[in-house]
Design a protein that fits this description.
Length: about 160
């Protein structure tokens, strides 16, 4: 009689272990996916920050005294700075169709080029702000976050 009770208990415990494994495996997979998603978000933020830096770098080196060099115009035209930011964003994992060259756009993504002193002469500051809407790959709800980066510099040439 004792052996049948022991085998019955072992069978019940085997079922419990299967249920426990299923619950722990689901929690582990969700944790693993959240780590992957957080890493992807950091990659996108880093790309946004680097795109803003590339735009400022272009603007401070190509002030209004520099004419057209190698197919790129002077930084007096903010659209040239925006084009540099867009070309950098194309090489990164960013969807450039989400970026619009506007400081007042109410949308999710924008590129804003500002000259605070309304001048692009040597010694004048320039500011480039890039805002990008990050949407997670794996999400039950449409939870998006705006990732923004601002870079500033002083025109030197």
């Amino acid at each position: 009689m004792k052996t049948s009770r022991l085998s019955f208990r072992r069978k019940r415990q085997g079922g419990n272990a299967l249920i426990e494994f299923a619950l722990v495996a689901i929690a582990f997979i969700l944790l693993l996916l959240s780590f992957v998603e957080f890493g992807r978000m950091l990659l996108v933020y880093n790309s946004v920050a680097n795109a803003a830096r590339a735009g400022v770098r272009y603007a401070i080196v190509n002030g209004n005294a520099n004419g057209t060099r190698a197919g790129s115009g002077p930084a007096a035209n903010p659209t040239d700075v925006v084009n540099v930011v867009m070309s950098f964003a194309r090489s990164a994992p960013l969807d450039v169709t989400r970026l619009s060259p506007s400081c007042t756009a109410g949308g999710d993504g924008r590129i804003c080029v500002q000259y605070p002193y309304n001048s692009n002469s040597i010694g004048s500051p320039v500011r480039v702000t890039v805002v990008y809407r990050y949407d997670p790959l794996i999400s039950i709800l449409p939870l998006g976050v705006n990732l923004a980066s601002k870079s500033e510099g002083v025109i030197v040439f």
